[in-house]
Every structure is written in structure tokens, then in C-alpha cells.
Amino acid sequence: MDDPIPVPSGQTVTLIDTVSDAAGPAGLTLRFRFLAPDLAGVDFDLAAEDMRALCESYALPRVSQTGPTPQQIVISLADISLPFGDSNPDATQFFEAFSIEDDHCIWEPF
């Protein structure tokens, strides 16, 4: 298992995978999917801070390593690991989309 990635909430977060072959509404989209086993105990506002921090500190430094600059980065947190696109009524999942502007993540409401 990967080392935990620090986030503002202090919960344990690790990378599940990165998805780059599923276009989003804005075009090329990179999805960084994270496992956060304690997510059900975190309110959305704090999870949103975690997702912004993951975009800034984890995703952005890796964008240049993936090829062309994406139009959007999607950060997802889930308390159980599911295959991309699958759902499970027992899973808690949060998603946020960000555009990249001046090397920063700008929140983009869905």
C-alpha cells in the first residue's frame, strides 16, 4: 500500500489510481482517486478542504508527468476502493472538479 498523503482533516488518505482515458465535460480530464477509510466520519466541508489540498499538493505536481495539460482535474475520495465508474450504496464518496490556472487548482462546480 502507498504511504498516506497528508490532508487538512488528518484522515488517512492513499492513492487508489489515476484515470486519464475518460474525457470530462471540459475535455481532457485527469481523475485522481483516493481511498479514505474514515471518510464517513468527515463532513463535506472538511473533505472539500482535503480534496483541494490533494489537487494542489499531489495532483498538480504530477500533471506534467502525464502528457498534455488537462482541462480539468477531478479529485475523488471514497471509504472503500471501487473500480472506476462503479457504485455501491454502502460507499461514501465525494468528488470535486478543478481547473488549472497559474499552477493552482480552481474549484469548478459540477
Explained architecture:
By secondary structure, the chain is of the alpha+beta class. It has one domain (14-108). It contains 1 helix and 5 strands. Strands 1-2-3-4-5 form a 5-stranded mixed sheet, covered by helices on one side. Helix 1 (44-63) links the parallel strand 2 (29-35) and strand 3 (72-78). The longest helix has 20 residues, at 44-63. The relative contact order is 0.23.
Summarize, please.
The protein is an alpha+beta fold. It is built from one helix and five strands.
Q: What's the helix and strand layout?
A:
Layout: E1 14-19, E2 29-35, H1 44-63, E3 72-78, E4 93-101, E5 104-108
Parallel strand pairs: 2-3
Antiparallel strand pairs: 1-2, 3-4, 4-5
Q: Can you count the helices?
A: 1
Spatial separation of the terminal alpha carbons? 31 Å
| Rg measurement, Å | 13 Å
Overall mean confidence score, pLDDT = 90
The count of domains is: 1
Strand content: 25-35%
Give start-end ranges of low-pLDDT stretches: none
Main β-sheet: number of strands, strand sense, barrel status?
Answer: 5 strands, mixed
Shape: globular
Q: What class, by secondary structure content?
A: alpha+beta
Strands side by side in the biggest sheet: 1-2-3-4-5
Order of helices and strands: EEHEEE
Q: Report the count of strand segments.
A: 5
